[in-house]
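Table S2 (continued). Query chain:
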Amino acid sequence: MMKDEGSLSSTDASYYRRLMELAGGLWREIQDDNVLDGAAVLAFFFLLAIFPAAIFVSSLLPSLSIPHLQQAILDLLHQVLPAQSASFFEGTFRHARVGQQGFLTFGLMFALWSSSAGINALIEQLDVICDVKERRPFWKRRLTSIFLMLFFVLLAIGSLSLVILGGVLQSWLASIIGWSGPLLVFFATLRWIIITGALLLALAVAYRFGPNANLDFQFISVGNVAAAILIALASTAFRFYVSRFGTYSVTYGSLAAIIILMLWMYMAGMAVLVGGEINKLLRR
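Corresponding output:
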């Protein structure tokens, strides 16, 4: 019995020691790869890319004939982003010019180029994290950025469409068996499972096809899950801080929404890069 207790204690100590080594190695990699500076670069390019992408998506939505999809996107933005930044997108979505093919074509071309610049910045930072040099020609890397951007847009639209379908199914079941607490909890949980799965898939695709490295595709990995959790925690904490303690409107005036959005993108970019660092350490 004493031997079993000693063996268990030794195992716990070994696990704790390995965990501390991983934490120390992660901190050194964050410093060596300048993750904080890389997150600032991502925030800048994401800010330049997100509005052309929003214009294109808002112009594309009416042609998809999916009811309430635009409202689902706005509701998700209000749940993820601080109120000021989420409201900033409403004008873009609410006043999109519907049915104008010329505007849609222009929005597509402009969004492809601008949004791919944001994804291209992410690729460069992932190359730094993976300790590889970008040897792909310019056209190939930009084409990779465009395909990744299109995949992320389609993934977001597809996942939100499933959420809407779940809401329709929920209403249908409620008309048969009546509204109940377990029914609401089940579909609320299902909605967040779909959104979390889409986020994990987006991270897995970015980590696999972004850097110029031959990596295995991992839908669920420690780095993916850590990045998703960090994004959720950062969003929740930042929304709480801005709503209770933030005085950005007083300090920055009409630029407050942009400043808040850029700070949120900075934290989200940091979470993505930290997740990549964790995956790299575990591959070793």
